[in-house]
Amino acid sequence: MYTRYFAIWICLLLVVSCKVGKDYQRPKLDLPEKYRNDTDINNDTSALSQNPRDFFKNKYLLGLIDTAFEKNSDLLLAVQNIALAESALGTVKLNYLPEINAQINSRYTKASQNSSSGQAGGNREIKDFNASAALTWSIDIWGKIKREKEEALASYLQSQEVRKAVQTKLVADIAKGYYNLLMLDEQLEIANRSKVLSDSTLAIMKIQYKVGDANILGIKQEEAQLNENKILISQIEQSISIQENALNVLCGKYTGVITRKVEGNSEFVSIPVEGYPVSLLASRPDIKAAELSLRASNARVGIQQAAMYPALNISAEGGLNSLTSSNWFSIPASLFGTLAGGITQPIFNKGRLKAQYAQAKVEREKEVIRFRQAVIDGYAQVSNALKNKEEINKQFIFAESREEALEEGITSTQLLFKAGTVTYLDIITVQSAYLQSSLQRVQLYTNKALADIELYYALGGGWQ
């Protein structure tokens, strides 16, 4: 009769168990229909989900990326974290199975003469030989193991997304460093040309000074302009060395010269100028990782809730037992077996379980906030990248026009200076302005490349 009631109660527990812990539901995000600086919505996302190796055309840059994928420490650590998460997932999957342990032992006891056995004249020597297998099984009444599996799976998938996020950032950082290095190379060439121009002007002024057509003040100012060029050259060479070292570190190599070369006018596969669906945010690995962290946190709430409910444990043991070694393996005389089952209900544990459950719920709410913030940050990054791309393109056009005008002006000023029509101040002013405009044009050209890289990164990097 009691066995029947016990079975009915267990069945009721199994029915109620489905109510413990809530399945994950994505929080409401209320995403806008399009980005702030996006003028249209393009539903065709195929051009944005490309492999990043198809995005970059420069073979020297691709070589650096390949090296970084093999040797970059952050990426290698991310791969190891995936292996740990995969191992944890495999362990949790086995929690559904019972635990079985085998043991073989023997025991010899000899009582003293003054013991009860010795005083009674009984057998003071006791021998016991045992070989058995023990089974313990915790029945998943409340779905605790199911939630543990959900948590482990979410953590495993999160580690994969973290790896992708590390890859995406690594590619962007290497590309930015590489094109910054190309910019420095061109700026160094401009500075050297400007130095040659200053040398030529200074030589002319010295000749004019000898014949009385120039004064010592003009010569000294042109020498100052020349020294300013030399300082600029030194600063650029310093920046090149630092940038090369930074790229080598990203690639997991010791410092050295970085081989580089401009491949042509088009260094990238073209990204559409407008029409970036907001839905692309879902493909960003950092946002995926944030959502998977929320999934794991939600599962932990179920785990802590299940810990407050009764636990059903079944144990069994069977094997061979004998008081003498000669008939230890005598079958069936030495066979024995036990079977037990029990329910454990936490009653008083100083409120630890309730506190842990409340903390798990708070952590889940914190993960909701982090996930929403990750989406907001991603939305802002794409909007900023779109605006940067648009405005830098305009700035580059203006910089090109300014440089062309100053280049024509410097040619005219040199002719006029040789003819004595303009003063040394005019030519120094024009030379300085032309140098600055050339450096600015190169900077903006590089900024165009960086804007493309930043937009590609903001849209998720194309990692599938």
3D architecture notes:
61% of the residues lie in helices and 11% in strands. With 464 residues, it is of the alpha+beta class. A four-stranded antiparallel sheet has the order 1-2-3-4, with no helix packed on it. α8 packs antiparallel against α9. The two termini are 60 Å apart.
List keywords for this structure.
four-stranded antiparallel sheet; 11% strand; alpha+beta; 10 helices; 464 residues
Topology:
Layout: H1 2-16, H2 52-55, H3 59-71, H4 73-93, E1 99-110, H5 116-119, E2 125-139, H6 144-210, H7 216-250, H8 285-306, E3 311-322, E4 335-344, H9 352-418, H10 424-458
Antiparallel strand pairs: 1-2, 2-3, 3-4
Helix pairs in contact: 3-6, 4-6, 6-7, 6-8, 6-10, 7-10, 8-9, 9-10
The helix fraction, in percent, is 55-70%
Termini gap: 60 Å
Alpha carbon gyration radius: 38 Å
Q: How many helices does DSSP assign?
A: 10
Would you list the SSEs in sequence order as H and E?
HHHHEHEHHHEEHH
Low-confidence stretches: 41-50
| Beta-strand fraction estimate | 5-15%
What composes the largest sheet? 4 strands, antiparallel
Q: What is the molecular shape?
A: elongated
Number of strands: 4
Strand order of the largest sheet: 1-2-3-4
Helix vs. strand class: alpha+beta
What does the average pLDDT come to?
80
